[in-house]
Design brief:
The protein has 17 helices and 17 strands. The chain has about 425 residues and is α/β, with parallel strands linked by helices. Helix 8 crosses helix 10 and helix 11 packs parallel to helix 12. The longest helix is centred in the last third of the chain and has 20 residues. The radius of gyration is 25 Å and the shape is globular.
Length: about 425
């Protein structure tokens, strides 16, 4: 009876190292590929460029592969216990580093089931991270970028979005990573905020900056990044105008637009009831949502309904009634907003909403209740967290401090610790050299 060799892989970027390990595996028996699902990968590193189905088709057609099964966990252990292979094969790059614990778990499990671990030398000269950077340098297409947000929501416990107001801030979001154990922490996408767009231009956040002007700035971000973008659509304007907004954003490859159920001159929600905030009727807002859904061309573009009931001082019951109506009208997600620092009203809303709807994504902007971690927000039923204005808020104090120091000292020497070196600035932007 032929023996089975288990090989777990992502197979997003195929390279000679992967072909080499498959060839080596065939020497020991029939090769079973445990192909990691999007959710297994995205919980620890970036979402694959290719979908699971695309990766599966590639791997199934590689010589030497006898069977492909989904690996739905970052750990190999569940599949090893399920399929009980005679061998598992892996490169020796996991002896140290973030996969060290994974290796220890594999050895323990294989001993329990009477199997053997085969380690082969890691193929030198192959760097998956470098290959991924090369792919990102090529850029992306509107169609690929547009589809990514839905994939992320389906794959990840919580999707992490950060505000970008310029190409430079977009590049930071695109590239920054933090390693925590065997997890690679990164931002999943960007938020194009009307507040920060307006503030950058020295204008109030009252929808004074029109869509055409905002798109000019958004193009700067689109040109140098690949991650999905959620667009802050304020109230969406008139129904007749909103349909054109949807078409325009979709054509540019924006993944989603969020519109709020308020009417009249826009006033920032964080003012709460200290200013007059007028909420649209349910019928009026549902008509706008339906018009937007009818206008979009692809099924991938998302229109998310932002509920302002808690901002306007209304009870949670009002927010729940509106959420139900908006979902029926076609909303692809619900954003619930509040200026209450306790976060208790958001938690209650999410828990109650999840008793009636377990599918529709919930989006939260925890600006005022920022004491809660992403895992805590996820436990409430939240799918997407938006850090809505932090990049701009961080930049202003730094610029103010530098300007102040130059004035006080009549030279720029004292401001140097607050500034990037010129050489680093020159190396920051791809294609500068």
């Amino acid at each position: 009876m032929s023996k089975t060799v288990y090989l777990g892989m992502t197979a997003d970027i195929m390279h000679p190292g992967l072909i080499n390990i498959i060839k080596e595996a065939t020497k020991y028996g029939k090769v079973m590929i445990g192909l990691l699902t999007d959710s297994a990968i995205a919980s620890h590193k970036r979402l694959p460029h290719l979908t699971y189905e695309q990766r599966e088709e590639v791997v199934c057609n590689i010589r030497g592969v006898d069977q492909v099964v989904p690996q739905e966990d970052w750990s190999y252990v569940p599949n090893l216990l399920k399929y009980r292979p005679d061998y598992i094969i892996h490169g020796d790059d996991w002896v140290s580093g973030p996969l060290k614990q994974i290796r220890e778990d594999v050895y323990k499990t294989m001993k329990e089931i009477g199997g053997e671990v085969i380690e082969i030398p890691y193929t030198k000269g192959i760097n998956s991270s470098a290959l991924n950077n090369d792919i990102k340098a090529i850029g992306t297409t509107p169609d690929v970028r547009l589809k990514t947000l839905r994939r992320l929501i389906a794959a990840k416990p919580i999707v992490r979005i950060l505000e970008a107001h310029s190409g430079l801030s977009g590049l930071i979001i695109e590239n920054i990573e933090v390693q925590k154990g065997d997890r690679q922490m990164a931002f999943d996408g960007m938020w194009s905020s009307s507040l920060t767009d307006s503030t950058c231009k020295g204008k109030p956040d009252i929808e004074a900056v029109d869509l055409t002007t905002r798109l000019q700035d958004l193009n700067n971000i689109l040109e140098c990044t690949t991650k999905p973008i959620i667009f802050d659509g304020d109230t969406g304007g008139k129904v007749e105008h909103f349909v054109f907004t949807v078409r325009t954003l979709e054509r540019h490859g924006i993944s989603a637009v969020i519109i709020e159920d308020k009417v009249g001159l826009k006033k920032n929600s964080l003012f709460g009831t200290s200013v007059q905030q007028n909420q649209a009727s349910v019928e009026e807002f549902c008509a706008k949502l339906q018009a937007g859904k009818n206008a979009q061309v692809t099924k991938d573009f998302m229109i998310i309904a932002r509920i302002e009931s808690l901002i306007c001082g209304k009870p949670i019951e009002d927010a729940l009634e509106r959420a139900s109506a908006y979902v029926k009208a076609g909303a692809d997600g619900i954003m619930i907003h509040s200026k209450d620092k306790s976060g208790e009203d958001i938690r209650q809303f999410c828990k109650l909403f999840r008793t009636q709807d377990t599918v529709t994504p919930i989006i939260a902007v925890p600006t005022t209740y920022n004491q809660f971690t992403e895992s805590e927000l996820h436990s409430w039923g939240i799918n997407v967290v938006i850090y809505a204005n932090h990049m701009l808020r961080a930049s202003y104090p730094a610029m103010y401090k530098v300007a102040q120091l130059i004035l006080e000292n009549e030279r720029s020497l004292e401001a140097d610790p607050y500034c990037m070196p010129i050489k680093q600035i020159l190396e920051l932007i791809p294609g500068t050299k």
